[in-house]
Amino acid sequence: MTGSKSRSDPVSAEARSPLGRARAIGLAAALAMLALIQLAGPGISERLFDSYQRWAPARPAKALAHVVLIDPESLASIGPWPWPRYTIARLTERLAQGGAAAIGFDVTFPEPDRYNPDQLAALYPELAGPARDSLMALPSMDAVFAEVIGRNPVVLARAGLVAGSTDYEVAAATDAALLPVEAQFTAPLPPGVGSFDRALSNIVDLDDVAAGHGLINGTPDGDGTVRRVLMVANVGGVPTPGFALELARVGQGIATIRPVIADGGLSGVGLGDTYVPVAPDGRMRLHFGPMPEKSVTPAHLVLKRGLAPGRFRGKFVLVGLAAAGTADVVTTPIEDETYGVYVQARTVNAILSGDALIRPRLATWGESALGLALALVSLWLLPRLRLPWAAILPVGLALALLAGSWIAFRGHGLLFDPIRPIAIAGAAGVGLLAALFVEAVMARQRLAAALDVERLNAAKAAGELDAARDIQLGMLPPVDRMTRLHPAIDLDGLLEPARTVGGDFFDAMRIDDRRICFLVGDVTGKGVPAALFMALSKALARSALRRGPADLGAAMTGLNDEISRDNGQDMFVTMLVGIIDATTGEVLLCNAGHENPILVHADGRAREVPLEGGPPLCAVDAYPYMAEPIRLAPGDGLVIVTDGISEAQSPDGDFFGHPRINAALASWTADRPAGDAGTALLRAVRRFEAGGEPSDDLTVLALRFRGG
Question: Which residue range or ranges hold the PPM-type phosphatase domain (predicted)?
């Protein structure tokens, strides 16, 4: 019994080692995906959350925000912006008389009114006497507006500024730390909250009498989309509320704002009985939705009266500019363009309804941990499953994560990113399966190599030439694989060995999504040495060219050096290599002592393409081969042959030659598949030989450019 166990242990360990390697590769793929997602940033997640908002826009229970829009019709009716402060004062009075709970101006008034009496008098220096005295005796427009502001719950905007921003130098005259802030914060704002050195504020006459002041900064995310609205920030070291939060505070008659701190960072702000979740930087993630039409009123209608009584009663009114040329145009998750005042109005509704979106602080870590956990489960479970469960379970799990993310958003306003765990676990699964596939391929290759050795040994004993010929044909790319390389390229190849084993070969491979590489080669000599040298040449050529060389000529020079390195038999190989751009028809050709290619136009006209080329590979060390370009029009074809065609002999000893090649290709027009070129040449050569024994391998590679 002990001896039996001893014999089975090494076998079991060896059987487990490929799976262990595959699991290690799968885990490495999961970690690489995690690092890639971290480097890529939140872009994919944000776009998913944007889609959620488009599918289920917000419809707040308390739509108390009302926008009075200074729109093009209002500008045409009242006059261009900026309006006289007297007009804005009348607008404010009308809103207050309508019962507005609070009135917020989503514009700043940093300069005195240009219609003030002293400003008008300065415009007309010739005005004198009683007329000038009467004009100067009038109250300033700013004083009239300030008197109205002082009697009503008005919130004025200000914009926080950092060094280098627009208006930063203009704001230097005002000490940001001395700007009035009516909101009383129950605690200082913690580190991490947004901070501004200065602020663009209103003139002192207005600022000193306003019921509140709020910041209107709306910095978009990196892709230019506004997803978050500032709730609180420090201006010159002084805690200051955002515009929407201040409007909600003034309208509800609340004096204090409570910063809520968790783990040393800001997690929310309290306003009366309302809790507003915010990120550590002091911004709230807004759930966007359409602005109801009944919540928007053009400013000129307010000034002209005639509106239904109580239209603004109990409303939080925001006055904003929405005309051509305004800079306050933003992109949101549900709109390519909208006005900033609409964003502020939606924010007021979200504050009053408690309808903000929540992205927990540790959400990213949790999603990454979940992804790694699922990756480990996948690495353990997938090898134990059989189809179809090996496909059903991962797909079902991904759908479950997507559904859970949607339910969390719809039901609780929680933002859970399912893409991160799906991508991490998916990378682990793909890495595992790819590694197992590679292990299987390597095992088959080992078996194939062993089979090739057996075939060679058998050839020595019972027919070396026939076995080597089979190996030679088996190394050529299958026709069905060549036809699938690119839809714009029709590619086919044909190789008819002579009685003895030869050294002809062809190959084709896809370099990238638009380039195809093809080649035809012919090794000097006959028999098994030529076939083996052909195998070496083909393998090295495929290795050198499938990486898509930037310089085809340099790649051929490097291939020449590689093949020459172990060429103890002093053999050489002719080769013609081409790279075609399937989108343009551009072809780069490099000829190493081979037959020139034949260009066949769409109507069947054929001609030889003369190439300068160079000597066969292995003939001259370090020869500087050069690539030569041609262009194929849609419908044109390119045919490459070996000397087994051009030097085929008739019973009289004549050579087949290029004129007969061109004549045989005349029937290969644009409507015929690539394979017809090789068939036509094979039939013509065999008729020319009239039953005689072929002197060499017959090889044809035909390519038709269908068009990009």
Answer: 486-705
